[in-house]
Design brief:
By secondary structure, this protein is α/β, with parallel strands linked by helices. It has a domain of 137 residues: Arginyl tRNA synthetase N-terminal domain (Gyrase A, domain 2), CATH 3.30.1360. The chain contains 25 helices and 14 strands. The strands form four sheets. A five-stranded parallel β-sheet has the order 7-6-5-11-12, with helices on both faces. Strands 1-2-4-3 form a four-stranded antiparallel β-sheet. It has a three-stranded antiparallel β-sheet with strand order 8-9-10. α6 links the parallel β5 and β6. The longest helix is centred in the middle third of the chain and has 25 residues. It starts with a helix and ends in a 12-residue tail after the last helix. It binds arginine. The site of arginine has 9 residues, from loops. The site of arginine (ARG) has 9 residues, from loops. This is Arginyl-tRNA synthetase catalytic core domain-containing protein.
């Protein structure tokens, strides 16, 4: 792919001058930028405004037209935008790229010339193939010197706790984190996918207490994640009762056997006691193996199963030394703490750094992990994909680093948070949610849907449909979560997700299959594509195709804005706009092939159009039509 090839395509449609250069334009990755460049260049010549201002005055028309030049943005002194727009409408030179512009009073609106659009955009997309929409070069550390390597990002996500529930927060973290990791990859970054297991701390002490009281080798062998969760839940209830009893009248009573045993066990782990460490290691090994199977089912991969246990003692001491030097870590009544308030940071409280008995806290392990990872990976950026419930924890981590004098490092960290997850409930007889159970539930919901619609899926009635149902169930689950803005709460309604009604994963999969089967065995020959006759795109009957093209040119921009905000919903709503257009395309196709012509008349085509119109919430004027 070269700019020469692009220029040849443009010459083919009658655009002779080279693509004008604009710093903001990325004509190699985004075809609409070619249109913007020519348009901005003409505007500059006609009005004498600054080229970059001309470029930035153009935006997508959300209502009428494809592109709109917002004339007041040109900031031309002493010129009435009304007069200007009138003037420009009459004097705009003809170009093969657009139909003649029209003024809406203040702005100048343009429709793509549909024939040229097909001629330019189809080869453009086909040349790039699956790289279309990606921008690998944006991940270079130095654009001038690709040898300087790619930028490195560590994306930490999923991160369940050993022996505990895999709850809705872990599920969302897994789905959103996998999306973030892959969009960074599409943008050319070198990505490390890290799972930071909650495999250290007092909770593991409590798990050990549970094991000593209720553990069963047999049940552990049969289903380790479930058995550990069961016994952890059991001990949790007892421990809660103990804590409540100890707090009667607000007076702490010293007698708290479970709490003491928990703290002692964790202390032993931190002191390297061989038996304690061996038990922990056994739990960890078995659980990680199980998790890896479940993640494979989700098609999610990790480069590293790290965990709180990996943080080295020396690094925690290093953190504390720095904090103490700056006078930030203080000895409190119960433990060593950070006094954020004393350092002018209200609202962050006085979190514990190290407990009285010398053991580390979640905060201390997290801060130390930042230092270790920055040494190990020299990352340009590290992203924590963790529920909004931990907002203040991450503020504490970042602020602690700043107070230690690690401001630059703290600036490379980002907490990407998300709202609650509702609607999931544990399988009966389990103490809480487990990833395997969630996936099983999705699978059953889809199986049920397939069975109740057996007429639509005759091919699935003969064999075993469970694999198909599993893949579709996961598709449904992920689509549901990725379709909404992160900050919103997601409601997982399995019965609703497992249908073709509306904007579901099954709807996407259905259309993907339709497109694939239509294209099966079809290859595009680049030369014939260049020399094809595109005049049919001017016919009204082909408007549904042109609308698809109009959407396709937007794709690189959609990916970019999704990347900027780390919002998957930008891409998902784009995909749903696309599938909304496809029924109309299918109808045109059927008609052109002369199949069932008797059944398909004007009316059906209009019906098909109705779909596209309803989707966009606006009438779609035909090309070149000037709205009055
Ligand atoms: N294991 C934690 C939990 O389940 C999430 C870990 C988030 N990551 C971190 N670096 N603290 O709540």
């Amino acid at each position: 792919r070269s700019s020469d090839g692009l220029q040849a395509v443009l010459e083919g449609v009658g655009v002779q001058s080279p693509i004008p250069q604009f710093p903001l334009a990325d004509t190699q990755n985004s075809p609409v930028d070619i249109y913007l460049s020519y348009l901005a260049d003409t505007l500059t010549q006609l009005t004498g405004c600054e080229p970059s201002i001309a470029y930035e005055s153009i935006q997508w028309a959300n209502d009428v037209g494809d592109l709109v030049v917002v004339l007041p943005r040109l900031r031309l002194p002493n010129i009435d935008p009304k007069v200007l727009s009138d003037d420009l409408q009459h004097n705009f030179p003809d170009t093969p790229l657009y139909a003649a512009p029209f003024s809406d009073g203040y702005n100048l609106r343009f429709f793509f010339d549909s024939c040229t659009l097909a001629q330019v955009v189809l080869p453009y997309i086909i040349d790039r193939g699956s790289a279309y929409g990606k921008d690998e070069s944006s991940g270079f550390r130095d654009h001038e010197k690709p040898d300087a390597g790619r930028k490195k990002v560590v994306v930490e996500f999923s991160s369940p706790n050993l022996g505990q529930e895999f709850d809705g927060n872990h599920l969302r973290s897994t789905i959103i984190g996998a999306y973030i990791a892959s969009i960074y990859e599409s943008m050319g970054w070198d990505v490390c996918r890290m799972n930071f297991l909650g495999d250290w701390g007092k909770n593991i002490g409590l798990l050990a207490v549970a094991w000593f009281r209720f553990g069963s080798e047999e049940l552990f062998d049969a289903d380790p994640l479930k058995h550990l969760l069961d016994i952890y839940t059991k001990i949790g209830e007892l421990f809660k009762a103990e804590q409540e009893a100890a707090k009667v009248d607000g007076v702490e009573k010293p007698d708290a056997p479970i709490g003491e045993e928990r703290d002692e066990f964790f202390k032993k782990m931190e002191d390297g006691d061989p038996d304690a460490v061996a038990l922990w290691e056994r739990f960890r090994k078995v659980c990680v193996a199980k998790y890896a199977e479940l993640y494979a089912r989700l098609n999610v991969d990790f480069d590293e199963y790290s965990g709180e246990s990996e943080v080295r003692h020396e690094t925690t001491v290093e953190v504390e030394t720095a904090l103490k030097e700056k006078g930030v870590e203080e000895e409190g009544d119960e433990a060593w703490i950070i006094n954020f308030k004393g350092h002018g940071l209200k609202g962050l409280g006085k979190p514990i750094v190290r407990h009285r008995n010398g053991t580390t806290s979640y905060l201390l392990r997290d801060v130390a992990a930042v230092l270790e990872r920055s040494r190990k990976y020299s990352f340009d950026k590290m992203i924590y994909v963790v529920s909004a419930k931990q907002d203040s924890h991450f503020q504490q981590v970042f602020k602690a680093l700043e107070l230690m004098g690690q401001t630059e490092l703290a600036g490379r960290l980002q907490h990407v948070s998300f709202g609650k997850s509702l609607g999931l409930s544990p399988n009966s007889g389990t103490g809480g949610l487990l990833l395997g159970d969630i996936l099983d539930q999705c699978q059953s919901a889809v199986l049920e849907f397939l069975q109740t619609h057996s007429d639509d899926f005759p091919e699935l009635q003969t064999g075993d449909a469970s694999d198909v149902a599993d893949a579709l169930g996961i598709m449904a689950l992920m689509t549901e979560d990725l379709s909404i803005k992160r900050a919103n709460n997601v409601v997982f309604d399995l019965a609703k997700m497992a249908t073709y009604d509306g904007y579901t994963g099954l709807t996407l999969q259905y259309w993907l299959d339709q497109v694939r089967s239509k294209l099966r065995g079809f290859t595009v020959d680049r030369d014939s594509l260049m020399n094809a006759d595109y005049s049919m795109f001017m016919e009204d009957a082909y408007l549904p195709f042109v609308d698809v093209l109009r959407l396709l040119v937007q794709f690189p921009g959609i990916v970019k804005s999704s990347f900027r905000a780390l919002e998957s919903s930008t891409i998902l709503s784009y995909l749903f706009r696309l599938v909304d257009l496809l029924p109309a395309v299918w109808d045109v196709e059927t008609m052109q092939q002369g199949e069932e012509v008797g059944d398909l008349g004007e009316e059906q085509i209009e019906d098909a159009w109705g779909v596209a119109e309803a989707d966009q919430g606006k009438p779609v004027p035909s090309l070149g039509e000037v709205p009055t």
